[in-house]
């Protein structure tokens, strides 16, 4: 990949997805560029609904990406640095543009007027995202996982996606979007208008805690992830080890998601990354 495109993708991650930015920096040099391109593409898909004033404008941008991917070739010059970086890298790693079109469709779910009806529906959405993440990153890293390892890795990715969904609640609320599933909102008597106004409540805290407990149960059932036989995939999955840090942040005394940052200091994330990178083992 051309260095200017690599640095552009890296800069986008540094600004909008710092967890994966740090993971890319710790990845082996041969896969650093492809991972940066793929991660920055996904970060762009997640940002689209939050960077437009009307849903129709987001639809237009998602459609541009679909059409760009559908016509992409190794020699494409789409006029967009992230798309050009993808064109330079995905074909060399066995990723078809159609694989990424289905990913665009998943991320466009954020434009839906209705939130997820149930927690199970939200979990299934995160599972589908995790499956596609694992497929693409496995091709980039050249790793072939056995069925058991693949299932565990999918759960680790799925739970991390669920935690990030909770972290997005204030941002989504500012755009009049609901991140919590409707069944939990009814169960805990959460007023959508209060959420849109950035007002925390005991009901919101209880709903978040219920999701956190569910996520922890998923991890216990999945078990630890040992990648000593698939070492190249470690960097792609590093962000999942931050799960417990973010859960601890949610549960810290007096924490208010609407008025306190859910970010974790970079040095703590780096230390967690380094420990797992050396051991190649991800604890549930």
Using the CA coordinates, give the radius of gyration: 19 Å
Q: State the secondary-structure class.
A: mainly alpha
Main sheet makeup: 2 strands, antiparallel
Number of strands: 2
Helix fraction, binned, reads: 55-70%
Uncertain residue segments: none
Output the helix-strand order: HHHHHHHHHHHHEHHHE
Mean pLDDT across the residues is 93
Give an overview in words.
By secondary structure, this protein is mainly alpha-helical. It has a domain at 1-111. It has 15 helices and 2 strands. It has helices spanning 3-16, 18-25, 29-47, 55-70, 81-89, 97-107, 119-141, 147-167, 169-174, 182-187, 192-196, 202-222, 234-237, 243-250, 266-279, and strands spanning 225-226, 281-282. The protein has a two-stranded antiparallel ribbon with strand order 1-2. α1 crosses α5 (81-89) and α7 crosses α8. The longest helix has 23 residues, at 119-141. It is globular.
Strands, helices and their partners?
Layout: H1 3-16, H2 18-25, H3 29-47, H4 55-70, H5 81-89, H6 97-107, H7 119-141, H8 147-167, H9 169-174, H10 182-187, H11 192-196, H12 202-222, E1 225-226, H13 234-237, H14 243-250, H15 266-279, E2 281-282
Antiparallel strand pairs: 1-2
